[in-house]
Amino acid sequence: MNVFSWVRIAASREYSQRYRLKQLQYIAQLEAGVKALEEELANAFPKIRYVDAQNTLLRADNGSMKEKLSTLSGELMLKEAEYHELKNEKEVLKQMSLMYRAPAFAESYQTNHYGYQHVNNIAMDQPGFNQFVEPTAPQAMMQNQNPENQFGFDVNIRDNHNLM
């Protein structure tokens, strides 16, 4: 064997030794990473269990709220139907009342598409003109010399809105 072979064998052994050391360092580095991840998992596991328990509680609460919403939606639909039924019944009764009290007034009573009433050519002294206001005697009105109405405005002044 010549010297060149011995040098080559020595270099090969040295390279193999460095390679084994690098492998051992890499394995040690991987083991340290595994230990760090295991510690992180050990710290995170109770947090994960806590959040999972909270999630379960919130899902149960969400389910009960959905059930309650469904119940309330059904009740709302019933109330709205009842409201519309009573509203229609009110209109029918109103029409019947008007026809019974003042046939001439009932013929002129109409509602437009906004729900407002059209009243045409009806005298104020006609029976049933304003069934919600109590009739007052003219003498009682003359005895009240207070020029202010119930809201504190002078009824004799035409522009009450300009008083301020």
Automatic annotation (TrEMBL):
Record InterPro entries: bZIP_transcription_regulators
Alphabetical keyword list: Coiled coil, Nucleus, Transcription, Transcription regulation
One term under GO cellular component: nucleus
Residue ranges of coiled coil: 69-96
Keyword Transcription regulation attributed: yes
An annotated Gene Ontology molecular function: DNA binding
GO biological process, one term: positive regulation of DNA-templated transcription
Stated name of the protein: BZIP domain-containing protein
Taxonomic lineage of the native organism: Eukaryota, Viridiplantae, Streptophyta, Embryophyta, Tracheophyta
